[in-house]
């Protein structure tokens, strides 16, 4: 009997797994340069004459977005073959947690590289957790930010159809625990209630896959905050944002049992795994989320930036370099360039990527630490962003260091500079004050491991760390970012603010 499960669409792509990391990376780079050698950028830097990684590094400069912006602007004007051979399929807008938007181009070949890595990960999940026996929830944000186009009609923000392609999108739609049409709902309250209704009805849910853990935490809190509306929908049915909802008394009874016990296993008895960010600034938020799921496996998401996929979880739930999706270089702490085969365990690196979507030797701004190897493939843990620095009096606190300082805490925690008092304020969630009762002492002690911070404190250039407990700080931050046009599911809550606008974000009146 033939099994026609939609999960079968996701297959492992054993393209060069019998080769070494060095051979796989060299092969990928050679194919990329050969394919794009007739682009304007390829002709300028002599792609056709590059015979080795050393040639590549000598002929092409390391670049950032400002260096490539003139080229990307031409791509947005539909000037063909600027950065790569082929059409610009779409752009995605990015800018991290604090900055304005940057347009990142996608080619068909670049998207194929992403889809191969995605398919490998999902196929591995099926093997590891047998999730093909049920459904999955993929983070679907409300359509508060509508897709736009460039002047020449190229899509900006293509959504699931862009990343998945027609073949995978069809499979996702069949597997999804909620209709993919929820991503078209423009009202956040309607979107949340619809999502809760469909999730509550799925006893066969096997996987939660979201980006930020706070995204799922907010949904779970909605089960409590919106229990009257949700109970009425389950008991009587109704219509919301064009979705006809049938009454489901059996689920209404189960939901009531959940409300009385708080045990998520009552709603989702077959749930096996939760996939979300769990590194760097997401560490404490992931721990908070898993308090709802004490018996479920947490699989930390790999490092997947708008620009490229860098790592994906392996069978041991460790972030493994996606060797066959891009070419990678790494800047070590001495400023030297390393390749994937020369990384050292417990050393930190800045990531440089080369992609089939026109980013060559592109400094992506992410920091990683090598935590080991799977065979000869590096395992890389995301530690934070470069360039996110708070510097009131010369202390130069980086995001990765602040992530370390806040890692013992539970729930929401954010360090904010206060230029008025010349010091730092630790924002915490009021609900976890008992768990974090020694937070100021713990964090101040770790901050003093930074010599410049300790020196400034000794000279009273910086006042002692203060603490401000807040009501629902996650919700405030998410609402502020949504008001700036960010998609709810894409928002990552930072551990460090680098300016004074946190009072506005959290509506703090003094």
Automatic annotation (TrEMBL):
Record-annotated GH3 middle domain positions: 322-385
Database matches in Pfam families: GH3, GH3_M
GO cellular component: cytoplasm
Source superkingdom: Bacteria
InterPro entries for the chain: GH3, GH3_M
GO molecular function, one term: acid-amino acid ligase activity
Protein's name according to its UniProt entry: GH3 auxin-responsive promoter family protein
Lineage per the UniProt record: Bacteria, Pseudomonadati, Pseudomonadota, Gammaproteobacteria, Enterobacterales
